[in-house]
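Page 47, continued from p. 46.
Same chain as before, 301 aa.
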Amino acid sequence: MSRSRNWARLPERGSPLALWLIRAIALYLGRPAARALLYPITLYFLITAAAARQGSRLYLRRVSGREPRWRELFHHIHCFAATVLDRVYFLTGRLDYFRIEIFGGQTILDQVASGRGCILLGSHLGSFDALRGVGSTLRPFPIKILMNVEHNRALTRLFEALNPELARAIIPIGRPETLLAVQESVARGCLIGALGDRVAQDDKTVCCRFFGQETRFPIGPILLAALMECPVILCFGLYRGGDRYDVHFEKLAERIALEPRRRQEQLGVWVQRYAERLEHYARLAPYNWFNFYDYWAEESS
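Result:
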């Protein structure tokens, strides 16, 4: 199975009832009690989720250069569970639970002040929702989110219920009206949030050097920025344990111009730059890597 299909074919973990139970625990028992429950939940997933456990093992082996211990696998999955729990609080505006340190904040302030839209390019590293805490520290900014709403529908419905305003800000990927919706949003000065580290089945890709191996990345977000003639700003919300998050912003490009004869080559250059920054931040916070599948297709190579 190709890597582009690995993550999309993973089954959803947990029923809608279980997800709503998590929501109830998070909102009505409070964060300390909910965090205490993360330990048995993490242990359950470590034991039962074989594919995710193997994905964690392959990644941690690549990062550390050795076979990871069980406690490291546990810590990796626990970090993911903690950010899923905190997502409930971010989406319901309970930001006083967190200490958020912002790096490169002037980059996003300048972009919003310019009145121009941009692509806000993130990944499945850490928490994209930690960006919601930035508005309480700096200033709110208009954002739309490109999202694959077909995968993990139960989780999507849960978070739509938590924040209906956010649901209206979602631009579904892969529909006839997607490009027009992005174009109109950029023209209004919106920041278009997108994730650039997973390859969907029909995505066009380029091969990049990533953690020492050639790996395929989607060209979609970079190509979209070129079509919109807008800047690309990278964002990474790294979970640092407890109530701490570090949110990093940095500009990848002011404008991406593609020459017709060198289009694929130039796309490859820009996506490689993204991959290098993604690796940089993954090494800063290795347990924040939340792609729990065979990312480098090691087992099929």
